[in-house]
Task: structure prediction
Amino acid sequence: MQRIFSGIQPSGVPTLGNYLGAMRNWVPLQDTHDCIYCVVDLHAITQWQEPAQLATQTREMAASLLACGIDPRRSILFLQSQVAAHVRLAWIFECVARLGWLNRMTQFKDKAGRNTENVSAGLYTYPVLMAADILAYKATRVPVGDDQRQHLELANDIAQKFNHDYGTEFFPAIEGLIMGPAARVMSLRDGSKKMSKSDPSDQSRINLNDSADDIAQKIRRAKTDPEPLPSELQGLEGRPEARNLVGIYAALADTDHASVLREWGGQGFAAFKPALADLLVAKLEPIAMEARRLLADSAYVDQVLREGAERAAAIADPIVAEAMRLVGFLKT
Ligand code: AQP
Result:
C-alpha cells in the first residue's frame, strides 16, 4: 500500500475549509492506503499561540479528526512535536532548499502581508518543515487543499536536490491528492480570500463546532450578489461568492457544481441559503457532537496520540538516521 501523510495545524478550531479540503478526504483513504495523520503543532507556533490555548486546541483538533472518522486502529494519528525526526530532517532540508525558492511562496506573502520584517523566521521556512514531515516517512501521497499545491512542489524540489547533491535516490517523488469540488473554500465575507481558522473575523468561516444557529446566521449573512443562480457553469464566472457557496453545497451533497446549478438555476439566494445551511447542519452537527463526547474523556484522546507518536517514530527514526548518514554526520 502506498503511504499517505497529511497534517493540520492546531491554530484554531477547524473550519469548513479544512474539513472539505482535507479532513473529510482523509477518511476513505484509510481503506486503500497506509495513512499517517499529524496535528502539526510545530507549524502552529509560526504565528503566536497563547500556550494554554494551544494545548486545548491541539487536543480538540485530535478529537475532531477522530470524530470525522480517522480510525486509530487503521491510521497513525499523532502530534508533530512528539516525534523528533521531523525537526532533524527539517534542518537538513533548510540547508538543501534555496532562498530563492522560499521567496516565491505565495502563502508566506499572504500570511505576512505588509509585515514581512516582523513575522517569525519559522513562518518563512514553514514549507521546509512540511517537506520534512512528509519525507521523514517517505510518504508518496499527500491529500491537501488547493492552497498547499505550491508547498508540495517545493517539497519535491527539495527531495530532488537532496538526491542529486548526495548522489542517491533516497527520497521518493510526492504526489498531491487535491480532491473534490471544494478543494479551496473561500471566506464567507470575501470570495477572493480563502477561508482560514485564523482569520480575525469569525463571520468569514464556519467552524466545525458552530451551533446550528451560528451556521444559519453566518450563511444568511454570507456575501453574495443580487443575481439569481445561473443554470450553467459559465454563469458563475466573475461571481466568486456565488461559486463558493455552490461549491460548498456540491461537496456536502457529494455532487458537482453543474448538478447543483441544474437543480437551483434561476432561484435566488433567499431560497438557496437556507437549504445550504440545513445541509451544513446535517453534516457538521454529528461531528461536533462526537468531538464533544471524545473530549469528555481526554485520557482516551491522549492515549491515541501517545501510541500514534510511538508508531510514527518507529517509521521515521530509521529513515532520518539514514538521511543523516548520507549527509556525513558521524554516529558515535
Ligand atoms: N479554505 C480552504 N479550503 C480548502 N482546504 C483548506 N485547507 C485549509 N484551508 C482551506 C486545508 O486544510 C489542511 C490543513 O491546513 P492547515 O491547518 O495545516 O493550514 P492552512 O492551510 O494554513 O489552514 P488555515 O485554516 O488557513 O489555518 P491558519 O489560519 O492557521 O493558517 C490543508 O490540507 C489545507 O490545504
Q: What stands out?
A: The mean pLDDT is 96. The chain has 13 helices and five strands.
